[in-house]
Write a structure and sequence with these properties.
Blueprint (H helix, E strand, L loop, with lengths): L1 E3 L7 E2 L3 E3 L5 E3 L5 E17 L13 E7 L2 E8 L6 E20 L8 E3 L2 E9 L6 E6 L1 H4 L23 H9 L2 E6 L57 E4 L3 H7 L3 H21 L4 E6 L7 H15 L4 E5 L17 H18 L1
Parallel strand pairs: 11-12, 11-13, 13-14, 14-15
Antiparallel strand pairs: 1-10, 2-5, 3-4, 4-9, 5-8, 5-9, 5-10, 6-7, 6-8
Helix pairs in contact: 2-6, 3-4, 4-5
């Protein structure tokens, strides 16, 4: 049996990852995981949940995952710790087989994270080649694929209905044959998270955490006592060609009807563009708005103008989506349906082709 730590030497990483003292790879953000090429007879994955998986009465937050073999989803599930280590038989054959393997976290980081043990297999693994185009998308619940597996908008969110692969971010990457990483947290914004009463939620902001591994309300495990927000991210580990910022839908719930709040959003958005550019100096930047609503789009566009004028940086662009209106259906909590995500992905892919 051969043993492989799931690092960049052995697999292609598809998100921001952390390795603990047992060399377990912890996946936090939506879409995080790995891809590899396998040649051999048998391959098994071993998964462990974080603190959320220890809560049997809180199954709405358990991490959701999927495994693909040669592009076909063969396994999916929610991760609890009723069994200390979840074992997934991915390949088992009497003969030598070759296959491309992908493990992907379907749900977002805030609710829960997943640990993957080093692979011990009867065979060999190697990284899948990187794509020529690399994209990063910074966003909120829309980018996470919030509730896409629920078709009743009156039903509330559960991680069981969140699937990153059915969201516009993943679909855009597929259309462009690109690698994709995201930094997205449901309900969060630039100056306020989502509010239904006009009160600010200043503790739900993307900018303070962008340089971190992610954010989760739970720790990886009791022994390490660490959360994604306590770990710095190495921006040299993935160098995107273009970064898409899709933030403002949640801010709008706080800003609507208040010009001074929109002004604050504009100012802080321009500052955040500066942070993104500082961390990724070679990347083009595309700021988008409108999959759910576009009232705040003019202020996003103003922020882009402020940043460009102040810095002289010209490789920054804007785009508006077509806001959904129910004709293509809704997902949980009135979020975009899979068909709306399809429409958004086509528009975004077209814009990225134009820029690149």
């Amino acid at each position: 049996m051969n043993r492989y730590v799931l690092d960049e030497k052995n697999v292609k990483l598809t998100g921001r990852c952390f390795y603990d003292e047992d060399e377990i790879m912890w996946c936090a953000l939506s879409g995080s995981g790995f891809e590899c090429h396998f040649k051999g007879r048998e391959l098994e994955l071993r998964l462990v949940g974080d603190a959320a998986a220890e809560q049997p009465m809180n199954d709405k937050n358990w991490a959701r995952y999927a495994v693909y073999v040669n592009g076909i989803r063969t396994t999916e599930g929610l991760l609890d710790n009723f069994v200390p280590v979840r074992k997934l038989q991915v390949i088992k054959s009497d003969k030598i087989v070759e296959a491309d393997i992908k493990f992907i976290k379907l749900s977002e980081c805030a609710m829960s994270t997943i640990g993957v043990y080093p692979i011990e297999c009867d065979g060999e693994i190697a990284p899948i080649p990187e794509k020529p185009l690399k994209i990063e998308i910074i966003g909120d619940s829309i980018t996470c694929g919030y509730g896409v597996d629920e078709y009743d908008p009156n039903v509330n969110f559960r991680t069981a209905t969140e699937d990153f692969t059915k969201g516009y971010a993943y679909k855009t990457a597929k259309l462009l044959d690109a690698d994709i990483r995201v930094f997205s947290i449901s309900g969060w914004g630039i100056i306020s998270g989502y509010t239904d009463n006009g009160s600010i939620h200043a503790d739900q902001l993307i900018p303070p955490y962008y340089k971190k591994l992610g954010f989760s309300y739970e720790k990886f495990d009791d022994r390490d006592g660490l959360s994604p927000q306590e770990l710095n991210y190495d921006f040299g580990s993935y160098v995107p060609d273009i970064i898409v910022i899709n933030l403002g839908t949640n801010d709008n719930s706080y800003c609507t009807g208040h010009e001074e709040r929109y002004a604050e959003y504009t100012e802080e958005y321009a500052k955040f563009i500066g942070t993104v550019h500082e961390c990724n100096p070679e990347a083009k930047i595309l700021c988008v708005m409108g999959i759910m609503l576009d009232e705040i789009a003019p202020y996003m566009e103003k922020a882009v103008g402020i940043f460009s004028e102040k810095t002289g940086y010209k490789e920054i662009y804007t785009m508006r989506f077509t806001p959904h209106d129910g004709k293509l259906g809704y997902a949980a909590d009135w979020h975009p349906s899979p068909a709306t995500h399809d429409r958004a992905a086509k528009l975004l892919a077209e814009k990225i082709r134009e820029i690149i």
